[in-house]
Amino acid sequence: MRARIVHGEEGVRDSVELLRQGGVVGMPTETVYGLAGNAFDPMAIARIFEAKGRPLSDPLIVHLPEASWIKRVVQFSSLKQRKMVEKLAESFWPGPVTLLLPKHPELPDLVTAGSDRVAVRVTAHPLFQEVLSRLNSPLAAPSANRFGRISPTSADDVRLELGEYIELILDGGSCEHGVESTIVSIQEDRLEILRPGPITQEQLKKYGHVSSLAGIVNTPGSLPGHYAPKKRLYIFDSDIMSFPSKARVGFMAFHTSFKEIHNELTAVEVLSSSGNLKEAAANFYGALRRLDESHAEVILAEPVPEEGIGVAIMDRLRRASYGSVHGTGHPPSNSPAR
Ligand code: TXA
Ligand code: MG
Hints:
alpha/beta; DHBP synthase; Rossmann fold; 2 domains; eleven-stranded mixed beta sheet; globular; binds threonylcarbamoyladenylate; binds magnesium ion
């Protein structure tokens, strides 16, 4: 099978039709592309797991066109919880935040991998919203990559990842944010960040006490070795000029252009020449994918400042990497296995 990329109104029509038949479609969101299937159709959900090669123990995020649909998939455990969700929804939806809440009993267990909690979000992408409204059913959608690999931020990326496994990809251009949504678990008036993303701890603070469990909780998206290129990637926190052999090195720079040594390096990607973290996030996975496809044998990545969406970039970079290299050393030969 070779996935067909479709656009605009005709693309929306084809997507809705395939989803009605229990099929799966690669679809754009404002964060990364998702692989969507009807959340209430267990066969469609099974197809998502199969296409991604994803273990059935790893639950999927459910997407809604508007907050009022939440009652279809969530059963609130208290009034306090509902009020908290209303406040968060008003501020952040539609947008890149996912809330972890008690699951509605009618939602198939396959979606949540047997967990009694479901992750939900309202995506801001107009094409995704349009498909949801016409289908009139929530869509489960994980990122549209093979399990553990680099998340796609364009329709072409989805075809590279899943082109052999799915029929249809709806093209919605390149993703605005470029990293996955912030996942927040709601416990009474406490908020716990399970995965950092475009909505920051700072922004969530005014709604209750916020702690970050990112890196502690063992959902697969928070395991090391996730979001990973095929090549070895190291975080390189010194001047690339000092790296001894630049041949066969692919370098992911945050903002420096390193014009002097471009010729020596096999491949260079600059995430944001002006040092803008939002721009860097939007370019991050695409740059990683291009370096992975280049002739470079090893990828070195310059760290970005850990503020705002930079927290999410560094989170993904650490999980994708084999570790850090400091100063002038070569990558360690006894790297940990993944
Ligand atoms: O921005 C996003 O969130 C994208 C777009 C497509 O919406 N989706 C996405 O989905 O990143 P995925 O499946 O690649 O990552 C979702 C993460 C996984 O690590 C999964 O384990 C966790 O969320 N998750 C989903 N449902 C959960 C649940 N019920 N309990 C705990 N963790 C859950
Ligand atoms: Mg993913």
